[in-house]
Structure formats: C-alpha cells, structure tokens
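Handoff note, outgoing to incoming analyst
You'll be picking up this chain. Sequence as last confirmed:
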Amino acid sequence: MAGVPRRSRPRAAVRVEFDAAYVRRYYLDPQTRVVSAREMRDRARVIAATLAHAGIAVRSILDAGCGVGLLKAPFAEFLPRARYAGLEASEYLCRRHGWIHGSLTDYVARTPSDLLICYDVLQYLSDADAERAIARFARLTRAALYVSAMTRADWRLRCDRRLTDRAVHLRSGRWYRTRLERRFRYLGLGVWLHKDVQPMLWEMEGRY
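Most recent structure output, in case you need it:
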C-alpha cells in the first residue's frame, strides 16, 4: 500500500482535556467510537490467557488511561482474583467513574501491580513524556505489562481514519520497542514481562 504524503499525516498535538464531547465521540457513540465493549472483552481474554499460560499470577491490575473502564468487567470475568484500579488523566472521567486522577509521567503507586495496562495512551504524550512514562513502567508493575500505541505504520496502513483521533504524536514501533526492551521482554500480542520475572514457557514460546 502506498505511503501517505507527509502533509496528510496527523499533526502532532497535545490534548489537554478528555472532556464529555471527546468521550461521547470516541467511546459512546456507536457511529464514531473507535473500540467496542466486545473488542475490549476479547483483549482482556487474550491478556489473561497469555499470562496464565506463562505461569504469571495476577492479583492486582492498574489500568493506566482507563477511559470509561471497558476492561474492568472483562478482567473481573477472566482474572476474578485480581483487584482492578483505573488511573486516568481526565478529571471529567475521574469524577464520573471514580478513577484515580493522575498521569503515567508522575504517578507513584504505593505498591506495584502484577499487571499494568497502557492501551492507546502513549501516542497522546510528547516524545519526552512518553519516554518518561515508559521508564516508569518498571516501577508500576512487578510482573507484566500490556501496551499498545498507534505508530506511523498503523496510521498509514491499518487504522480507520474516519474514526481515529488525529491529535496524536506518531512514532515508529521501533522507538517504543527499543525503550521497552530495557526492562521488559516481549511475549507477544502486546504482552511484556518484567525482566526480573521468569515465565514458565518452552524456548520456542517466548524470547529469553
């Protein structure tokens, strides 16, 4: 597929407030939302199954940038023994759903969680803030991480531009992987393990 001319790529911008209008468009309206409850349930099931197969017990989850909490109920189903906490930068969403108000760039947890979720958050941060957030991942999780962020290749080849928010910072997948690999090893499908954790996998099932 042909590449996109530079002038048509999303303009790098920082969104200050994820307000009611943003939530209605990207989360709630069936005509414009970018993700469905069913898709998020499938995502939670994949994450839980991957960690169970690797022998990683999950008793606590921190969902950073949790939005309206589409992963909360699925995790209660697939990881019923895990406590779920949502971290959100939007004051509107925190008031509406009772999440912890804070940012990945400076949030300090009393204790690290077993599983940290960072879904579609990093592309909203500048390079410096995204790098700072990734560096903090190892303090926020003692075992596992799920991370997904739209990259330049995703924008060119995969996303539905009619629905996708353009006010983001686009970087290469390599940019993210290089920084994540300093403290984590990749298992697949967005799931990473802290390098201090040894999974119960056969050699061909993961990278060691």
